[in-house]
Amino acid sequence: MLKKSILFTVLITVSLKSSSQNVRDYYLPDNTVNKATFHDPRSSESGNVYSKTIEYLKNGLIYDIIYSNLVNNTPAAIQTFSVKFEKGQVEKISSITTNIMGKDIKHNYNPPKVIFKIPQLGKSITWIFNDDGDKDICTASWTSTNVGGIIKPTIKLITQPIELHARRIDYYVKGMGLYQSEIEGSQGKQITDTLYSLQRDILPGMLPEKNISNPLKLPNPRKVLSRKTYILKTQYSKQQIFDYYKKLGAVSQDNPTSLSMSSYEGSEDTCILIHFKKTGSVNYIEISLQCDFNN
């Protein structure tokens, strides 16, 4: 048993030494994917379905990272971080938080705030994160994670608010980004998010119907119904987006930022809602299914 433990430790050490300790390798998923979906195991306790998505959008030398918290597949809050990568660390330069009431809270950080660091092999590193007077002690250290039977090197990030007893523990797996989150308090640890899937967010059905030109490469709402709710960041204006979807048969709603659309061509239902939202300087399309076809 001792020999197996020593061998296991050696294998992990060799793996870490042979891999480039690039902070992007741990903070971001592999560049073949750009969206992570998380499951909250507390869902079964409350009767509601809690989940989260993280979208990683490259914008020149900056990454916009969009966190969407969902309750029963409906967005409850959206938070967008703009980050840059310096040697061995990730720096947050701005953030926009949109709550359930649609109110935006904006922050620009000058100097940028360090939110993630990669320690030297076998060691840990600690720093203070100060956000408008709320101080957290952050500690990053090495560990490993068993992913489908494969042991992967992992950065364990502990965030301890100075004025609270509870702390947050995040695990960043090489090639996968954030993998799991926990809250640890006086009653022990509780997992809050576990990675469910990684995907490349290029939707099926990008080709237009009825030979309608689609130069904006907008998604076809009738091809994303299995997702219930789909949120897409876009550079295009509401007018450009609505002009295209109206050609596909979408009609205006009482809400000037929404259109409705039938679930399939030729149907008279209005089961699809297309909603345009602007958060700061960022435009979003939200496509959601309004009908329950299981009933």
Polypeptide structure, described:
- The structure is a single chain.
- The protein is mainly β and 295 residues long.
- It folds into two domains: 2-199; 221-289, Alpha-D-Glucose-1,6-Bisphosphate, Chain A, domain 4 (2-Layer Sandwich).
- Helix content is 12%, strand content 52%.
- It contains four helices and 17 strands.
- The strands form two sheets. Strands 6-5-4-3-2-1-12-11-10-9-8-7 form a twelve-stranded antiparallel β-sheet. The protein has a five-stranded antiparallel β-sheet with strand order 13-17-16-15-14, covered by helices on one side.
- A hairpin with a 5-residue loop joins strand 9 (150-161) and strand 10.
- The radius of gyration is 22 Å and the shape is elongated.
- The chain starts with a helix and ends in a 6-residue tail after the last strand.
- The model is unreliable at 1-20 and 202-211 (pLDDT under 50).
Oligomer: single chain
Distance between the termini: 55 Å
| Mean of pLDDT | 79
The counted number of beta strands is 17
Give Rg in angstroms.
22 Å
Biggest β-sheet, characterized? 12 strands, antiparallel
Beta-strand portion reads over 45%
- Secondary structure class reads mainly beta
Strand order of the largest sheet: 6-5-4-3-2-1-12-11-10-9-8-7
Low-confidence stretches: 1-20, 202-211
Number of helices: 4
Spell the H/E element sequence: HHEHEEEEEEEEEEEEHEEEE
- DSSP helix fraction: 10-25%
Sum up the overall morphology in one term: elongated
Total domain count: 2
